[in-house]
Amino acid sequence: MSKHRVAITVDNYRCHRYGLCEVEAPEVFRLTADGRLAYRAQPSLWSREDVLMAARNCPMQAIHVETP
Ligand code: SF4
Known about the structure:
It holds the Pfam family Fer4_13. By secondary structure, the protein is an alpha+beta fold.
């Protein structure tokens, strides 16, 4: 993994598309018009705190984050 990036994976079986992650980190997570969750798998480090907050607040604990 790059030293300048956060690595994200979302468990699609757990995720129920509540969208709280989009509220916490809109630069990384986005619910699409057709009901899917789109996300950047390796955003830059500047979004680290937002991504960690999104993972913490996900009601399904569906977001896994690796940080350098
Ligand atoms: S907060 Fe969790 S359950 Fe909700 S859309 Fe994001 S990853 Fe999915």
